[in-house]
């Protein structure tokens, strides 16, 4: 239930009401946007009449959104996430770039150089890789994270890396500024709940057969566990089309932005699986209102240990950055 509070309701009365509802075993979240103050009350059936009659309650907002905290019915203003001074979701475009996997110290330094020189702010690199085959390269683990952090520091970049297991959250938080949840783990609910207790932003990628509602409900797990810093990412879904690795769902971007206040990114690398499609799909995503892009870049893409076919090289990345920041792609 979403409750809009009266503009002149005293803060102390609101606080008392929140405490009483929490005492009754309900989850209560509060948001203030200008003069508007709203409560999301979640839990067992509540006595609507009792709340509607309170003087501090202006109205009960009818909301069909099951993702109460992630939904735009509760929070109208867009969520802006501040990562060490860099704002995500404030209307500017944020580019995350780097290799699929961290392969060596040399490789991630070379990637960081390309990323920084072209004006991107966040360095990606997987140290724990969710590979289809157990015989494929699984990532360098902590050693890779050390390389990632050092390379990012050298070039003044922020870092993001995937966390696959609750057991690794602690480790990841030491090295990464943003924790990535991959498509395969989007509905790993114990992982999501534990990330909800984390202080770091979570980059939540859409599962390959997840609906918008599934993705937003996954975000709800993190938000309702106490972490408000969630970034959504469209990374392509499985369809009958097998020319591309996945079908990049561009409509997901404006739709998720309508349904939710959370920043929405697009990953055209996994979204198509094809190197030549990364530029056009990046432009399409920006035109559709994406708050950011995640791009796989490697100094020698053909030699990348993972996802080589969808990884672009330094020249293509330079062109992409110029294009997406030129305003041509941006019709916002
Ligand atoms: C990745 O970002 O390298 C990755 C594994 O992505 P996804 O979870 O979207 O497949
Ligand atoms: Mn990859």
Describe this structure in words.
- The chain is an alpha/beta fold and 332 residues long.
- Helix content is 32%, strand content 19%.
- Strand 9, helix 5 and strand 10 form a beta-alpha-beta unit.
- Bound molecules: phosphoenolpyruvate (PEP) and manganese (II) ion.
- Manganese (II) ion (MN) binds next to loops.
Descriptors:
8-stranded parallel β-barrel; elongated; alpha/beta; 332 residues; 4-stranded antiparallel beta sheet; binds manganese (II) ion; TIM Barrel; binds phosphoenolpyruvate
pLDDT < 50 stretches: none
Radius of gyration: 21 Å
Give the overall average pLDDT.
Answer: 95
Span between termini:
32 Å
Shape: elongated
Approximately what portion of the residues adopt beta-strand conformation?
15-25%
Q: Could you give the order of the helices and strands? A: EHEEHEEEEHEHEHEHEHEHEHHEH
Give the names of the bound compounds.
Answer: phosphoenolpyruvate, manganese (II) ion
How many domains make up the 3D coordinates? 2
- Helix tally equals 11
What's the total count of β strands?
14
């Amino acid at each position: 239930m979403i409750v809009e509070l009266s503009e002149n309701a005293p803060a102390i009365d609101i606080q008392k009401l929140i405490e009483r509802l929490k005492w009754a075993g309900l989850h209560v979240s509060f948001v203030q946007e200008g003069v508007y103050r709203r409560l999301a009350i979640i839990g067992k059936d509540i006595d609507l009449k009792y709340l509607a009659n309170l003087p501090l309650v202006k109205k009960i907002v009818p909301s069909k959104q099951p993702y109460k905290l992630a939904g735009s019915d509760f929070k109208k203003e867009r969520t802006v996430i501040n990562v060490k001074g860099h704002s995500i979701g404030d209307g500017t475009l944020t580019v995350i770039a780097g290799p699929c996997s961290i392969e060596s110290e040399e490789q991630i330094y070379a990637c960081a150089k390309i990323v920084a020189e072209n004006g991107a702010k966040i360095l990606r690199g997987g140290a724990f890789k969710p590979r289809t085959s157990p015989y494929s390269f699984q990532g360098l683990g902590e050693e890779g994270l050390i390389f990632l952090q050092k390379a990012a520091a050298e070039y003044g970049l922020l870092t993001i890396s995937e966390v696959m297991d609750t057991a690794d959250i602690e480790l990841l938080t030491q090295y990464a500024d943003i924790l990535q949840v991959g498509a395969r783990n989007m509905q790993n609910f114990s992982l999501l709940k534990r990330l909800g207790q984390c202080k770091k932003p979570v980059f939540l990628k859409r599962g390959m057969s997840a609906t918008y509602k599934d993705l937003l409900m996954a975000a709800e797990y993190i938000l309702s566990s106490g972490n408000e810093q969630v970034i959504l990412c469209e990374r392509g879904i499985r369809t009958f089309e097998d020319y591309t690795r996945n079908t990049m769902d561009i409509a997901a971007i404006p739709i998720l932005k309508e349904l939710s206040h959370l920043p929405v990114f697009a990953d055209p690398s996994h979204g198509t699986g094809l190197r030549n499609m990364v530029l056009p799909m990046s432009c399409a995503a920006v035109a559709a209102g994406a708050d950011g892009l995640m791009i796989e870049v490697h100094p020698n893409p053909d030699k990348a240990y993972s996802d080589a076919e969808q990884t672009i090289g330094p020249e293509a990345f330079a062109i992409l950055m110029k294009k997406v920041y030129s305003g041509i792609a941006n019709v916002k």
